[in-house]
Structures
1.
Amino acid sequence: MIYLKQEIGPILDVKPPLGSGKWLKVGTLKIEGRGTKLGERVLKKILDTAISEGQDGVYVTVFDIHADLIALFERYGFQRHATKATDDGVELVLARDLNTAVGDIIADYPFLHLNGRRSWLLAVYPQYHSRLLPDSILNNEPREIVQDVSHTNTIHKMYIGGVPLTRMSRGDMVVIYRTSDRPGHAYFRSVATSVCVVEEVRRRSDFLNVDDFVAYALRHSVYSEDELRDKYETSSRLYVVKMTYNVAFSRRTTRGRLMEEAGISEQPRWDLRELSDEQFGRILELGQVDARLVIH
């Protein structure tokens, strides 16, 4: 359960007070943990709500015995700002200013830092797309495919394939391109749905053995342990990119519009395709991405 409340600062019932501006207070946060990284998905919802509603910051009060929850918020840019006295004791006040950035892709999540970064189009098959990226599910897909499992809930996603992902670098932007579910209908049914940001890229030789690979990828990819082991044992060309899941487009953009309005040519193939700054910017416009998320 999440209860969110909009407040206008300064917030005076904490010491020291929170400054002026529009604050989103996390009034109630109850997560029934099952080891599925549900906390990350909840945090994403909180930040998405704050940004879409034009809040200047977010704050949450929490007792210091909840060390895991505190660590989760602090990882994504929240700082210990104050304390709050209650009938049950003294709570910590964790706050994040959404009008400032520190230059770190995790602490600044979900903002997109474009300056000096390359951008890419990366194809994902339909059977994996919405299981991995739940907020990017298409309107005609059954909601039941989005389940309470680690690879769905986590902010950190892994794409595993045979294309040379080592062309990408930390901080690069990745437009996720969901391929068509009907052969021959890509022009209308293949769509750009999301933007992720690269954390790191590895190849098969970067892992000591299959166990090392499975331990790295299992909780962030859509593949089962058996499938991961099979990929490692049978694929000489094996690449993994770990990304943060930053933005789900408000409007999915078809292959046809990407070609006609963003200027992306039919060739080379769209499995992994570098985009120009102009093409990436146009894709953000077509996807109706909140301009506040983009830091130039």
2.
Amino acid sequence: RLAAEAVFCLRVAEIRREGLAAVDMAAAREPQGPAPLARLQGRDVHLLVVESYGQVLFSDPRLREPFAAAAEKFREALAREGFHVASAFLRSPTFGGGSWLAFGTLETGVWLPDQLRYNYLLGSRVRPLAEYFNRAGYRSVSVMPGTTMPWPEGAYFAYRQTYYARDLAYRGPPFAWSPMPDQFALHRILAAEILPRQQPLFIRYVLTSTHAPFNRLPPYLEDWSLLGDGAVFHRLEPRTFPVNWPDLQGAAEAYLAAVAYELQVLEGFLARAVRGEALVVVVGDHQPVVRRAGVQPPWLVPVHLISRDRGLLAPFEELGYRPGMLPDPAPPPKGMDAFLGDFLAALGG
């Protein structure tokens, strides 16, 4: 780390020039058409960013088979609800942490490998994803249950409504790093935004229950009406694992359990929240921390597109997305900075 920081200091002027150029280029290539989201025809869009959901689940022999079983169970549950799925890998700008660099890259088309370039973005003319939805008549909502401190930088991303930890009014215990279970956070948004909706919704969720160290997981409540204000979790036993930060050498079972929990939560949420032919995007932010992911694994994350409208997924399949939950490992994955342009091109009029 010290060597990397020394190199950064020596190259800071060059890095500054590269960062400013990248931001300017992103602003210059924004689509100029009048209706970049016309193909949605007012359908809701849910963008769910899943913490530490990495390619290692598809490649590591210790994880691949049990994860494949969980993913297939998830796909079958979606199919029973009439959903189709298409998947790909994306290259994340960060590894093992720095989630804001990942979703910042995803939502702006600017490659953000470090905080310096991220700071340039915040003062730039680059239009973030939510602003496209705002201009298309959507209500844009950001849900970040892991944000427990003021975050003025969030204003750049142009969401009309934000929900941070304090806004979700959770009265239960934390679970490892996560201030609240993702099931609770999604349940709150279901009641506050989705069921009483008055206009099309674009909601971005930054989920937290799969955050390291994975050692204390919340139980899943089949009956979501029992979630209340979250106090019920004081009376329920968490699922625990003998893993402690920062030593995650033996965290395979805990990590798998956290991801399986997340898929179960998403299954229940989509069945309750998604009506009609909405579009759902489930994407990882980065690979899990290095002790879990092994030595120098690729910086790849899966992305899944889910909809009852098979036609909405077709243009993404032309871009390399593969039907089902398992991305095609053969084509070189695009960077997360390509997602915004592909998304707007696939859904544009």
3.
Amino acid sequence: MNESRTAEQAERILPFFLQPWFLIAASFAGMMTRHSEHVIVFQAAQIRVLLQFIRSKGHQRILLNDRQRSQLAKAGKPLGRKVIGECCPVFTPDTILRWHRELVAQHHTHGNQVQSRSSGRPPLSPETVMLVLRLANENASWGADRIEGELKKLGVIISDTSVENILKDHGIDPESRRKECSGTWAEFLKAHWECLAATDFTTVDVWTPTGLKTIYLLFVIELKSRRVQFVGSTQHPNERWMLAMVDRVCVPEGILGGEYHATMLILDNDTKFSKAFKSKLKDRDVQPKHTGVGMPNMNAYMERFIGSYKRECADRMVFFGEQMLQYATNEYLAHYHQERPHQGLDNELIIPMPRPPDPEGAVVLTKRLGGLLKSYQRAAA
């Protein structure tokens, strides 16, 4: 009896599945499933190609922000590890699921986090943090206690422990290294501005009637003002010539002459700075100070000037004779002192203008060396 009832039910249901509209719907559903599979396969291939392209540019990892990780975690959780592994070649299934766990944990602990932030000591203001860092960076020998005292003078009340924490968070040793630090080379130079000068040679190749010759040029710079003196040039900087250069630079209008001349001269270990040369400097109350071997940064101001002279003048000209070289060098120094703003002097001129520029005056172009050196100024009203 049960078998006959089952047969009757099958006879009633079978026509339903054989209806044309059902067959059409089933076929359409099958087509949609295959279409979705093709879309997924295409998207997975597209992601793999994009990932290969990104890695070919040197990016081994794709870094996402919290919002992007949250979006992937929510979308990937219902799929499970197997499906994620098949359709997501960029991130592993474990990564997607770990993001989901972190999202759930963040959701459940959000209320507690908000409550914990509102309790305890209030955080320091960004202005206070920046002030602590400024004092630490501008005073290498100050420790946390010294910075705390200076802040108190400025009306900022903060404990030495807080100062230590700020310095540690920004990679600055709050105590031992700073107390032993004697300051930077730049700080040493600025502390001795009034008495420091520096000297060095550079060379330029010049065409002469007998062929190409190398000319040595000697410069001296006053560190504080950046004023430069072209002492002289020669093919043979022997000791006799070097002693004559001492007389040139120690005249009243020279860098090492006058009532308030520099009393220390920075120079390298070139053999042209002989014992007799240094002895004559000492006779003129100038103490020579040697840089370390292979340490051009100890004579950085002189090196910087020579680099500018080469880039802006000497390397851009072909010289026919030493006289032409001397003329071009003097023209460059006139431009350097009177027309060229200097970043090390807050973009001011070494020799100030005799009067402030007239804002209503026309802008006039001044050229030197055939337009190689250019400057602009306001015409007088």
